[in-house]
Amino acid sequence: MQLQTIVPGPLTGVVTPPADKSISHRALLFSALAGGESQIVNLLQAQDVETTQAVLRQLGVNIKQRGAAIIVEGKDGKLQPTPTGLDCGNSGTTMRLLAGILAGQAFTSVLVGDSSLSKRPMERILIPLCAMGAKAFASPTGSPPVLLRGGNLRGIEYALPVASAQLKSALLLAALQAEGETILHEPALSRDHTERMLASLGVSLRREGLTLILQGPQGLRAGRFIIPGDFSSAAPWLVAALVCPGSHLLIKNVGLNPTRTGLLHILQRMGAGLIVRERGSSESGEPWGDIEVRSQDLRGTEVVAAEIPLAIDEIPLLVVAACFAQGVTRINGAQELRAKESDRITNIVRPLLRMGAKIQVDGDDILIEGQGWLQGATVEAAGDHRIAMALAVAGSAALSPVQLMGAEWVQISYPTFWAELARLQEGARCDS
Ligand code: S3P
After folding, report:
1. Domain limits of the chain?
2. pLDDT tens digits, residue range 419-431?
3. CA 165 – ligand 1 centroid, Å
4. What is the pLDDT of residues 338-365, one digit of tens each?
5. How much distance in Å is there from the Cα of 281 to the middle of ligand 1?
6. What is the pTM of this model?
7. Which of 192, 230, 313, 384 is catalytic?
8. Class assignment of domain 21-226?
9. Closest by alpha carbon to 156, among 139, 131, 176, 136?
């Protein structure tokens, strides 16, 4: 286990976050199903996306590098069976989207994951996939390993029990391979990268409010993708710059899809004067741009349940920001955080309490009484990349150094995170 000392101090300079993880997974998976050769530029180079590439290769997909691009030779809807388990590692997106694809393939597959993924709920995916005609079995707790026999799918009408883009995407991928109409009702809007990318690959998909309608079967055409930076990887810099006095950052080439940027609106309500410059839109219809941020005084806010899916991976960072805000912040209905790579409510609150924070957890609501300070402590990433980065932000604004155990978990989504933190802190030392 890697121990990282986080020395408090401001951050200044320019930072470009790594490519979007959600869009990278989708570009690979959708290209694999498409007819013809797709090109992906700026694919995320991090563990979760390597996992997706590895399982696709196992299913007979040829993926290679050509110049600056990754080339995926699409299988035109027909993957190859594999006798060995498909190891989805730590990646819920890989396992759930792949399950949607494999539900339409007339062979049996076994999906396995690491110890974190093996505790995550899969029934939410398997119940509707079985209603569409797939055969699926998970462990008695409803988690991986998953045995899936696909083929002969038919469309269904289904009300999703949770606002989950992974669930929605799995069902849309199955619907593409099903006979007839699939109608999905979301309880609240979740990230819509799948809808945008499918539309850019020639799929006809209708949205009416929170309802999606897709007539199957439909094929995908090959595409060219330029992946924007990941808002979720920009978010640690955003919050760090706000809460570390003397900071000033320009965060460049960040994805600004409104179904991802809930944190921006919450921080603006807390008093953050961020400058957001939208600069373009990618081939798959993803807006991107730059964000400029300086340290500022924040005030507490109330976050309602419908805002959670739009800021789902940033809630641990929001809890950190709230510790430095004046007054109380209340985050309502955060239960989905317990179903992530770890129980993110417990695993962000526990270390922050050690650092002197005043936080209460009331069921799935989190109440933070901002005090304007945190102190150093020895804390743990709990096997979760987002917790590691949120604690790094807490440490960079604390009164004394933080010792973080499990720093290596940033490899999942942001392998250069620690080098970037050191560079931006060095930038501030050179400026002063
Ligand atoms: C993701 C969706 C989110 C998010 C995860 C990536 C995706 O999960 O937490 O990190 O790529 O679709 P849910 O939509 O299931 O909440």
Report:
1. 3-19+228-431, 21-226
2. 999 999 998 889 8
3. 5
4. 999 999 999 999 999 999 999 999 999 9
5. 22
6. 0.98
7. 313
8. alpha beta
9. 131
